[in-house]
Structure prediction request, 1082 residues.
Amino acid sequence: MSSDTKFHVHHDAPEVVGRRERLGVRILIVADASFVFAMVFSYFYLRNLNTNGGWIPKDGHTFSVASGWVVVLPLIVGAILHKIGQRNLKTIGTISIITLVVYLYGLYYQIHQIMNMPFIVKDTGGFEGAYASSWVLIAGANAFHYIIASFLALGLVIRARRANVDPTLEKWRMRTAASWFTWIAISGVICAITTGIM
Amino acid sequence: MSEHNVDLKPTPGDRFTTFLKRKDIRETLAWAAFYTAGFVVLGGVFYTKWMPTSLSTDMKSIERLMVIFTWISAPVCGLVLSIATYTFRHGTRGDVPPEDGPPIRTNFLGVASFGAMAGILTLTAVVYGLIEMNSASEAAAKDAPSALIVEVTGSQWVWSFNYPAQGVSSNELMLPKGQPVIFKIHSVDVNHSFWPVQLGIKADANHFQTTSVTTTPNKLGRLDVKCAELCGLYHAYMETEGAVVEPADFNNWVTQNGGHSA
Amino acid sequence: MTTLSSHVSSRPIPNPKNSLITKLNAGTGLIVGVVFAVATYNLLKGENEDPGIAYNIHNRALLAAMFMWSIGFLVGIGAFIGPWRWLIGKDLTAEEQLYLAGDGQGIKRYFKYCTDHKVVGIQYLWGVITLLGVGGAMAMMIRTNLAAPGGHFITASVYNSLVGLHGITMIIAMIIVATGPFGNYIMPIMIGAADMAFPRLNALSWWVLFTAIPVLCSAWFLGGIPTGWTAYAPLSIQAGPGMNAFIATIIIFAVSTAVAGSNITATVIAMRAKGMTWNRVPIFVIGATISVALAVPAFPTFMVSMIMTALDRTYMTGFFDANIGGSGWLYAHLFWIMGHPEVYVILIPGVAVLMEIVPVFVRMPLFSYIGAVVGFAGIAGLSILVWAHHMYMSGWMPMLNGPFMVTTEMISIPTGLIFLVMLGTLWHGKPWLKLPMLGVYAFLWNMLVGGITGIYLSDVPADNYLHGSMYVTAHFHYTLMGAALTGAVAGLAYWFPKMTGRMLNERAGYVSFWLIQIGFQVLYLGMFTAGAEGQPRRVVNYASQFATANRISTVGAYLVGTGFVVLLWAVVHSWRHGKIAPMNPWGAKSLEWTVPYPVPLVNFDTPPVVTSDPYGYGKAVK
Prediction:
């Protein structure tokens, strides 16, 4: 509809626009990856220093290894579902809804974990030690990943029902979203492995 | 620079002589010699004049290092500044742009020799630094058994010194001449940095981590102890004094302050 | 629906009906932002008998209010209309996008969420001028206080705040000083693009940054910051409420940087004109891209360290609290893993501007283009491996000081290449000594001094003496101010005709140049001497032995300050009354000089095709 205008992005073919958008998102993923790297680095640095025996203090509480993986599972499932949906565009409407539900569940579960952390000191409301601090940072970043993913999944669900969306560009948008979904699944696995080593 | 002709194919020796006879080369070389000499003099004068009296070999070697590094870099300064000065002097002023120069895109010999020079100078600096570091840590290891131990505590905004073997605590840093000393440094609050200026050493004071640093005072004199890490409101005033004294005087000072001489 | 001819000027102003975007501007942003901030603060502020917990709650409310100000401003200016319309499946129409580009809306578009890269470039330019002005005024106060021993001009608490806020203001200003104005205004034209890759992200990066400025200024009213711009923990944990402003500024700025970095990098990779292969890209574009591509992974670590500081201050986590297992070293690592690449994020674009200038004014090709690219890439690559040279004295792991010394000193090799490129281009030339070209000469001297003193500092034994002294302060001002800022000012003189349509007043330009450069040498020669004598940095007061050196420094500082005032006058005056500039006043060969002023909305009427690099100067090749 707008291919006749001389106005910036619109005089480019949808493939070109789509490829460019995916490039931009991938560069942002580099920034996010650096964020995750910094958290993992901090986790192991503090664990290694164990200043004053404060990594996990005596009688300190921890999360089980399994709970770290449970909260990451929806990320992996969501990424795989989205890949399947891309293969067959007819089913995309349905699959996007399932993806969205999976992400929302993951988000709920992550927030639930944060609200029920075992390692808060009763009297002061402070944290028990460095492990607890590092854990909550990683969990928070994971929740942030879930929020962005839910936003993207919700958009894809709504847009699949709209007629006025350029289908070629939309296909690229799905691939762009897939870059993010794949990355957060990888990051989730990295975080689960990290928090599993206490 | 249109007068030089690149099409001739003379022998390398001839080319070098013609090269040296060129007017632009001569002027540039003269500037290079001028600037190099200038930096050699500057390096020799500036640091020896302004750095404080050295009371240890560490400080002496730092002073020497600053001078030698300036000398090493003097030819680089000469090269850069001579070309800059030459072209600046022969530049075009006014509102009319100059004619285009020769379309030189690169010059293999120039790039290669420049790269090699940068590499060699860097390597020199690295090797020199590593040797100095190594000799300092070797000396520290050798001196460890006979060393005087001083526990340094940084707190906002006071330095305090404890001599455990002598049983003395003080806010001024007294050291006997000629005896190696190990400082064990920590902080009770935020980060500080222990800096006995004339000894040429420095180490941060961290909370819950002890750092240590070693030196041997080899001259008598006054010591300034400062904090070199911003530590809050009165960071600027977190300083104290001290002295390197004869061993006998040090023992007197210990006994006067209620300790027992070792 | 809309068919646009290429007659840009005769085009009617698009007016999308029933669209919210026509009603939003910085004013609505301000209102929504303030409402959000005040509401959040009042909602979260609470009282507690325990002073420790009250401190935490107060910090929470302040931090949340600051973030909500930023978000509210962006909501109010319409930054989220695009994502919202994407979400509900009603993408912005071409007409609406055209409206957002602001064509024909006059001066109003500078106060709107405008996607035109040329508008964003001018917004960045004034943002930079504002930040440099504020930071410079702080520097003048610092130097006035240090003019004589005693430190009676300002109190210790104000002084410490000044040091920190001067630092962070200047760091932010210097990060965007070249990539902001020139990277947004000039660079897309240089590569023959119609716009940036993501015009809305472009507007977002500027307005996000804009929201950080009031947050940073609020630090003054919250008691200042006591930590210096490095904000070392645990000092930052015990600091007062002003620290929250610092934390929020950094986090907001990091978002802006990530967005801008992604946009600029994608633009250069994907939007180059036909025929502009990688070896034909102007060197400024290469430098700016390497710089932002380095910033993209570097800044998130700073953001993490600031989030940790915020959590320690609000929810009593223990990242930096040694009582419960934290460590100040962790902060230093995260900070410098960002901090050392960051100085090259500042330096590289400034140098690249000068490299763009040299061939034009010497009328010769850039000498060893490949050397310049390798130099920039080498600096960027090595810069991520040198961070611990800031921590030689911290005691975190003395055995690694040697390796970090080696990587640090290796940076001299790519830096040498940068010099080689400049000198090689100058040699055999008769440079046209206009204002931009003078910057090249100032750079050669300043970077020489900055570089060589950097070698002393990178050497562990010498750093034993110099670390934390005024010598360090003088060194990094030589590199960041003497080299990078000189490059940016030269770039302003060079591109001023394209950005404003007028020539920068030459006489005032020369006066300011010599005032700044001579004052600069006086200022930092004094500071090098004070450092060599043993004066620590960041001190409100000093012993009388340092008095002469400091007095000389202060005199130099006033000269520099006067020079910048003259420059500001020249910019403002020339912007309105300057001589009308021809299309290509310097006779340069890069693409930005082929478009008229005002630059049309899509930059080029017909997309350009590039057949050579822009350095084809020189008499005919035989």
